[in-house]
Design a protein that fits this description.
299 residues; alpha+beta; Jelly Rolls; Arc Repressor Mutant, subunit A; six-stranded antiparallel β-sheet; three-stranded antiparallel β-sheet; 12 helices; 18% strand; DNA-binding transcription factor activity
Length: 299
């Protein structure tokens, strides 16, 4: 289901709207304040035509697709399959036909996001970068990121928003390095955050564990680009920002379970989890035991 606020964010997304008005079924979606987003769809028996969208779309097939093909001026059609990747740059045109059910992930992002990432990550002018138009290609790196990092996230839980933003930056950089018209290498940056900046970041995280924390907020405090901040944070703290925050949240929850009798739902909210089920899932992944059983063992 699409909420009212999500509808406002998608009204200018051409490909999302084409699918929504087509035979496609929307299973999940996530939209960030900057207009980028993700959606999981399934479709069958029909066709879809995309005409010069003003945004880029990464399409990744999750299931099926063997009877899905893009209409080309070629003798033999090229068909999809699970783990196949398509890149549809802004202003591209394409027609697709399909005759059996398939499921796919879409990532939507504007060219300004890509250009900004390029300039911050590679320290180069990004006005002339262009994404390649790709159809049913293999990319084991993105496949691994999507299956093992992006899909397991709870897209509607605020505690996972930090992880999604971090993954988004990783995807952008990979696309720029491997699916772009400009060949680039990431500058070699050594060293982490300065001690005073690391202390400031750590204090902010501890003070806001019950709130939504984003890479953008932390990078602004450090006065760094999001890309460089993430790399330097990892060097200073030994893990990516989202993993570090999750560790602190679960440790805080463990302390509250030991020292208070607050209901599990209240502890979940105090530690930045938007629901008790998601809190239980993350706590068990960290401690190999549910919060309820952990509390029992402390008595």
């Amino acid at each position: 289901m699409i909420g009212k606020s999500d509808s406002n964010k998608t009204e200018n997304n051409a490909i999302f709207n084409t699918l929504q008005n087509n035979t496609a079924t929307l299973h999940n979606q996530l939209w960030l304040p900057n207009g980028s987003g993700a959606a999981i769809w399934s479709n069958e028996n029909g066709q879809a035509n995309y005409f010069k969208p003003d945004h880029h779309t990464l399409s990744f097939y999750l299931d099926g697709g063997e009877k899905t093909h893009r209409l080309y001026n070629q003798a033999k059609p090229l068909y999809g399959a699970p783990d196949k990747l398509c890149l549809m740059p802004a202003e591209h045109q394409s027609q697709w036909r399909f005759s059996s059910r398939f499921k796919f992930l879409h990532l939507y992002f504007g060219h300004n996001h890509l250009q900004s990432t390029f300039e911050k990550a590679f320290d180069k002018e990004g006005r002339n970068i262009e994404l390649m138009d790709q159809t049913f290609v293999d990319d084991s790196y993105l496949s691994n990121i999507i299956h093992h990092t992006l899909l397991p996230l709870n897209w509607h839980d605020r505690s996972d928003a930090l992880a999604f933003t971090h993954i988004q930056q990783i995807v952008y950089v990979h696309l720029l390095k491997n699916h772009c018209n400009v060949q680039v290498n990431i500058p070699n940056i050594t060293g982490g955050l300065s001690p005073i900046v690391a202390k400031r970041i750590n204090e902010y995280i501890h003070d806001h564990l019950d709130s939504k924390i984003t890479i953008e907020q932390l990078a602004n405090i450090a006065e760094l680009s999001e890309f460089h901040f993430s790399r330097m944070f990892h060097q200073s703290f030994g893990s990516p920002p989202h993993q570090y925050v999750l560790k602190l949240r679960t440790q805080l929850a463990a302390m509250l379970l030991k020292t208070t009798q607050h209901p599990l739902a209240d502890i979940a909210i105090q530690c930045g989890f938007s629901s008790q089920p998601h809190f239980t899932l993350q706590f068990k992944a960290f401690f190999s035991i549910t919060p309820a059983k952990y509390r029992q063992q402390q008595r």
